[in-house]
Amino acid sequence: MQTSLEGRIFGVTLLAVAVGTSIPFALLYFDIDIYLAWAGGLLLAVAVALALLRPLTASLNRALDALESGLLNFRDGNFSNSLVIRRRDELGHIGRRYNEVAEILRRERAHIYQRELLLDTVIQSSPQTLLLLDQDERIIYANTSARHLLNNGKPLQGLRLEQVVSQCSPELADAIARREDGLFSYSGADGAVTQHIGNSYFVLNAHRHRLVVIREMTRELTRAEVQVWKKVIRLISHELNNSLAPISSMAHSGKMLAQQLDKSSASAPNTTSHKPAALDRVFDTIAERCRHLTEFTQGYARFAKLPAPSCEAVQWQQLIDRLAPLQPFTLKGELPERPGYFDPVQIEQALLNLFKNAHEAGSDDTELQIRVDRQGQQLVVSDRGCGMGEKVLQQALLPFYSTKSQGMGLGLALCREIVDAHGGNIQLHNRDGGGLQISLWLPWTQQS
């Protein structure tokens, strides 16, 4: 076991003193002058001390240099180096403590890096648009949604905000420039879009920063709107049914009484009939209108009470075979080998509604096509009807909206409700050369 640094220095000092005191006595034995003897002893003691301390100080200097280099690495944020000091004195103890601290800092840095990587992954995967701006309105950080919304997927770091928003829609640019929280709407490639913008301010490294968060609200607002409509429909249907049932019963009873009056008049020819000549026609009209109104309310009730989809594995050819006898159409492309996973009854109803709309829009049966994407659950229905205007496209999926004089505005609304219940989405586009293309995308909610 090596002695401590203090012990080694003390031992060297004692040895030098012993040499320095023994040499003069030896020289005095040879009749050397006493002053010269002690001077020679002193010089020899100093030489011995220097010779013995030189290796000790050299080793000490190397250890101190290594410690200084390690501390400089700490200052620069580099914790990857460890010291190799094979000593059992105080410097060796300090070196081991240095290595322990370096290992702790390395683990902490790795942990922080993993958390930063996880946080960045979460932020980049977030559907919300996130922009971090410095005090000069220059973009410091932007996630994937921000790049796609504002710059067609290209990087945004380092660009000025005014340079980026100049390429966006005026409504979006104005909402960002106002620095106010709230909802705003504009027309996008997929129709009307509603978003919420939020602004947060904080100070980092003595500089003011701004965090802009833009959240897509179209689907949430649409669902809320549909829920409100459903409540209204249920209320109206309830009240109408409560009134229609007694009216229909009274009309039937009135018609029976009228028939009895007919029989009484026939048995008593001299008795004047109290029944007006058009009484039968009046009762028939009342009954017909009640029946029509009942069917009308039942149609809305079906929309308001759409059950949750009962998804199952469905062979695509089986779906096509079930649709073929109901409406002529052309299958475009090949069907996927992988079965779909959805509610076959609801999806069949949605497709039949789309076929019916295409037929009413003037499309010939030979121009009606359906295609199933082989890469995923996407059904595309195309026709060559009259298509839709820009304003109609934005409102076509709303309940009760219809451009037909006798339409109830529930066909496309029901399609959207079915697709939304599956967790998917529906998109409408006018085709080049006339006609409409409707895409139904359904997520893979379970492996089939």
Describe the structure.
This protein has 448 residues and is of the alpha+beta class. It folds into 4 domains: 108 residues, no CATH class; 91 residues, Beta-Lactamase (2-Layer Sandwich); 84 residues; 130 residues, 2-Layer Sandwich (Heat Shock Protein 90). Helices cover 54% and strands 16% of the residues. It is built from 12 helices and 12 strands. The strands form 3 sheets. Strands 2-1-5-4-3 form a 5-stranded antiparallel beta sheet, with helices on both faces. Strands 7-9-10-12-11 form a 5-stranded mixed beta sheet. A hairpin with a 2-residue loop joins β4 and β5. α7 packs antiparallel against α8. The radius of gyration is 45 Å and the shape is rod-shaped. The model has no long low-confidence stretch (mean pLDDT 77).
CATH topology of the largest domain: Heat Shock Protein 90
Distance between the termini: 71 Å
Shape: rod-shaped
CATH homologous superfamily caption of the largest domain: Histidine kinase-like ATPase, C-terminal domain
Q: Based on DSSP secondary structure assignment, what is the total number of beta strands?
A: 12
Runs with pLDDT <50, length 5+?
Answer: none
| Main pleated-sheet profile | 5 strands, antiparallel
From the alpha carbons, calculate the radius of gyration and give it in angstroms: 45 Å
| Largest sheet, spatial ordering of strands | 2-1-5-4-3
CATH class of the largest domain: Alpha Beta
